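dude i think i finally got it to work??
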Amino acid sequence: MIKFLDLKAVHRPYRAELESRFAAILDSGRYVLGAQVVEFEERFARFTGARQAVGVGNGLDALSLALKALDIGHGDRVLVPSFTFIATWLSVMAAGAEPVPVPVSLETGNMDPSRLPVTPDSRVKAIVPVHLYGAPADMTAIGDYARRHGLRIVADAAQAHGARYDDRPVGDFADISTYSFYPGKNLGALGDAGAITVNDDGLAARLRRLRNYGSDKKYIHGEAGTNSRLDELQAAFLNVRLDHLDAENAVRREQAAHYGTALAPLAGIVDTVRPPGNSRSAHHLFVIRCDKRDALLDVLTERDIQCQIHYPVAPCDQQAFAHMTADAGIHDTARQLAATVLSLPLGPHLCDEDISEVCDAVTASAVDLFV
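look at this
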């Protein structure tokens, strides 16, 4: 079987390092906001090219805390892509604001800058571009739009560890960028974890307060915060994984290139969701689009090739957002993507022969389904 994700295999080469870090923390007696968190924050800031990184409990908290640190809340509105993991929309609601969906591009899956509101209403305070599947959004056009209308940019980089845009880290193009370290991510913890990167020291200080009950000093609370601290144990594991992230991302790029070349003759039948030309994707996922997606998935499953769908239901069609309304056409591309996208196996647990086998299976299946 070709597994979509095999975390046992991913962690096997680093088992001794992970166990050593665990033993060191167990012996230290310091389990919350200790030396491992400090080390990881400093190293992740350098990795992303940011001035500071703030570790938090998970990716959703990272987004909602980022918005709160910018004083975005009740009565405000935030522009979000119409197609994304639900956490993007939920984070806006968690901050007390209202998500306003913007259509996405079928080719990239990311927010389509040409479909942004010509003149956002006065309640719109921020825009949250998502670097979906690890591929940067069009940050030039989004940045220009944000500057014209006085909006803050909070980038959802949950899947974009190591992605670059115009040969710069994707975080350079946002006021704040947020990351998830869910175990399946390129940089994954052994549980939930997240981080926020920022170049403003004042915002970083406020984020550290907000994640820790609104406190700079124990039992002194300057504002109403929450409990969303990066766990010391997860920080230790992330320090191990970070040592190997560049090498693992290079493997992902090679596999994505292999897929792209092998599947190119199927264009029009099987299309790839691709990053913009001036960017380097982190290739968290390799995603194709196929009108007969469900039939293709069934065939690949029969051939013991695990695939997944990211995501089978557009946010607008989730019961959680049934109360929301939008203009006609806003969600058309999101629904098209939800009906056609399929994620193929990708990652350091696979070898070249695995990728070739998947390519052969997709090609043969596509021919059978469409001829």
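The chain has a mean pLDDT of 96.
im so relieved honestly
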